[in-house]
Design goal:
This protein is mostly helical. 61% of the residues lie in helices and 0% in strands. It is globular. This is DNA-binding protein. Keywords: DNA-binding, Plasmid. Pfam families: HTH_31 (PF13560).
Length: 44
């Protein structure tokens, strides 16, 4: 899946997703992490 697709599914900007991938921009909220996990089809 492309970066833009993941960001769209997680309801965040592709720029913010890129920052997260690179470890920049601070810590994401629990909601953003949950949305990313769902977008990437991850389970706990």
């Amino acid at each position: 899946m492309r970066r833009e697709e993941v960001a769209q599914r997680a309801n965040i900007s592709s720029a913010w997703y890129m920052c997260l991938e690179q470890g920049r921009g601070g810590a994401p909220s629990a909601e953003v992490l949950d949305n990313l996990a769902k977008a990437l089809l991850l389970s706990c």
